[in-house]
């Protein structure tokens, strides 16, 4: 009985990894996983392109802010539309670049405990966190914010400030941003599964190059720690 149980478990593990118990590839399962990997790659490409273009909104927001400050200071002129455009751009930067930050693992993490765990344990935590917390939240916010945008668009809702902007573009950023974040969450979950199957890189490791100033700060701290250790 015990032997039969072990054999059944062994066969199930082999099938989950995409192979029959005779050692031949399970074409259907491998094909399905290939489709999932392709989907993750397409989602990553979409959010990567959006993130890299959204970066330029930072420069535009800075120029608008500077121009508005100069005209107000020297010409006693100001524009509510320009003031409101700044926070709309800030919202766009934050909401549309969040998926790219998640993809490259440059978002804020609380790694006090997970740094002590193995790579597989971290990826399991990442997978469960994505499925149980990230995706339910982002999908719910995208669904709930969509009627708000539709209402603002249909009514032509505008700012209460004189010369202010229409509000529907800002309202649209919320469901759009959280929809893109939901897609990236799906991609991250797929990459977690791929890593756990031994077929991909660790998705919890940052893929973004370390900025020179951060690398310099790390080197200074490391040198200080080494000097303190030698002094002891």
3D structure, described in words:
The chain contains six helices and no strands. It is flat. It is mainly alpha-helical and 232 residues long. Helix 3 (80-104) runs parallel beside helix 5 (168-196) and helix 4 packs antiparallel against helix 5 (168-196). The chain has helices spanning 2-16, 27-74, 80-104, 119-155, 168-196, 212-231. The protein has a domain at 50-205. 75% of the residues lie in helices and 0% in strands.
Question: How are helices and strands ordered from N to C?
Answer: HHHHHH
Helix fraction by DSSP (H/I, runs of at least 4): over 70%
- What shape does the CA trace take? flat
Contiguous runs where pLDDT drops below 50 for at least 5 residues: 12-16
Q: What would the average pLDDT be, to the nearest integer?
A: 82
Percent strand: under 5%
Report the end-to-end length measured between terminal Cα atoms: 62 Å
Tell me about the largest β-sheet. none
| Strand segment tally | 0
Count of helical stretches: 6
Radius of gyration of CA atoms, rounded to a whole number = 25 Å
Task: Give me the secondary-structure category.
Answer: mainly alpha
């Amino acid at each position: 009985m015990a032997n039969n149980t072990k054999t059944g478990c062994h066969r199930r593990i082999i099938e989950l990894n995409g192979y029959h118990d005779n050692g031949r590839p399970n074409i259907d399962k491998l094909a399905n996983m290939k489709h999932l990997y392709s989907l993750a790659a397409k989602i990553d490409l979409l959010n990567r392109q959006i993130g890299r273009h959204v970066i330029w909104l930072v420069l535009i927001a800075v120029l608008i802010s500077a121009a508005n400050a100069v005209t107000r200071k020297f010409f006693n002129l100001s524009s509510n539309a320009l003031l409101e455009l700044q926070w709309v751009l800030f919202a766009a930067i934050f909401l549309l670049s969040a998926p790219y930050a998640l993809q490259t693992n440059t978002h804020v993490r609380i790694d006090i405990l997970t740094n002590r765990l193995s790579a597989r344990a971290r990826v399991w935590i990442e997978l469960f966190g994505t499925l149980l917390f990230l995706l339910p939240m982002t999908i719910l916010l995208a669904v709930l914010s969509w009627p708000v945008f539709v209402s603002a668009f249909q009514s032509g809702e505008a700012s209460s400030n004189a010369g202010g902007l229409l509000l529907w573009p800002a309202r649209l950023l919320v469901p759009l941003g959280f929809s893109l974040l939901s897609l990236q969450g799906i991609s991250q979950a797929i990459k977690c599964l791929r890593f756990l199957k031994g077929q991909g890189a660790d998705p919890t490791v940052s893929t973004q190059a370390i900025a020179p100033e951060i690398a310099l700060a790390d080197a200074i701290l490391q040198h200080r720690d080494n000097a303190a250790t030698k002094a002891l």
